[in-house]
Amino acid sequence: MKKKLLFFLATLFIWTLMTAMALATPANYIVKAGDTLWKISNTYGVSIDQIKKLNGLNSDFLRIGQNLILTSNSNQTVTTTAAAANPAPAASAEVTANTHTYVVKSGDSLWAIARHFGTSINNIKTSNGLSSDNLKIGQTLKIEASAAANTTVSRSGDNVSGTRLVEDAAQYLGTPYKYGGSGPGGFDCSGFTSYIFARAGISLPRTAAGQYSVGTAVDQSDLQPGDLLFYAASGSIDHVGIYAGNGQMIHSSSPRSGGVIYTAMSSSYYARSYVGARRIIR
To answer: What does the pLDDT average to over 58-86?
Structure first.
């Protein structure tokens, strides 16, 4: 009797262990703001190379709402970044007599929708009685017929304008600095940049050092609005801002400086601690 009980318990233990191992790595993962391939790889024990191979990725860039395949057992079709830039027709606006309607998809923001329909955030909010910038997946938005076009909203960040990104960032001028803050009530430096890019559908690493590892290096003489600027006053990357044009950057500076402000790159502190720039928006 004891032998049978021991055998049963051993079998149950092995079955439980195998089940737990099978469930440890989900078949799919939906990318969220702040995610990186490195973070996902470490969380689920899948190598970066394997994730890139399973999903046909040619770079480390991810987009919010992207569906990643994590195991070879998934039955889902691989969606590449290139394909994501051309969403299926279901994402297109539906035309009615007086207005266009758009159904909100994962990764959408009012800023991105307004940008692609050639209208303003305020126009969309007024037409839909919105009191905040929050959107829900599946929500139907009315777009003014005079401003809308029969197009789709890209969530890959490929068509985002650096100038429009800076305009969006400017609405947060005066927001207080908050250690570890990622908005919208308070930001630290990398929390601000990751929040602004996330509103445009672009996922960045959470820290300034992490953000310095993505994108393409840009010479200071070739800076464009929307480029990320990096500083290392302490010997390692410890600050990041967004180039706003005309030698200015917009950033969440410090509690004493007033939080989100414009600062000249030529100011002594930032001129001597400047490390370089990275271009995220091509």
So the answer is: 56
The residue from 69, 121, 189, 228 that is catalytic is 189
- Place 11 in a pLDDT band, splitting at 50, 70 and 90: low
Q: Which of 251, 253, 265, 278 is catalytic?
A: 251
The pair of three-digit structure tokens given for residue 279, joined into one six-digit string: 């271009």
The active-site residue, picked from 239, 242, 248, 261, is 239
Mean per-residue pLDDT, 169-183? 92
CATH of the domain at 59: 3.10.350.10
For every residue of 12-67, which 3-state class applies, written as one string? Answer: HHHHHHHHHHHHHCCCEEECCCCCCHHHHHHHHCCCHHHHHHHHCCCCCCCECCCE
pLDDT digits (tens, 9 = 90+) for 126-152: 888 888 777 888 888 888 744 433 333
Residues 156-167: tens digit of each pLDDT: 444 457 888 998
The amino acid at 185: G
How does 248-267 read in b/e, with b if 16+ C-beta sit within 10 Å? bbbbbbeeeeebbbebebee
Annotation says 239 is catalytic:
yes
Rg (CA), the chain: 22
Check whether residue 134 and residue 166 sit in a common domain. no
Quote the mean pLDDT of the chain. 76
Q: What residue numbers bound the domain in which 171 lies?
A: 162-279
- Burial category of 216 from C-beta neighbours within 10 Å (exposed 0-12, middle 13-18, buried 19 and up): exposed
Work out how many domains the chain is built from and give that number.
3
pLDDT at 94 over 60: no
Of 113, 144, 175, the residue that ends a domain is: 144
Could you tell me if 40 and 134 lie in one domain?
Answer: no
Residue 91 is a catalytic residue: no
100 labelled catalytic: no
pLDDT value at 81 more than 50: no
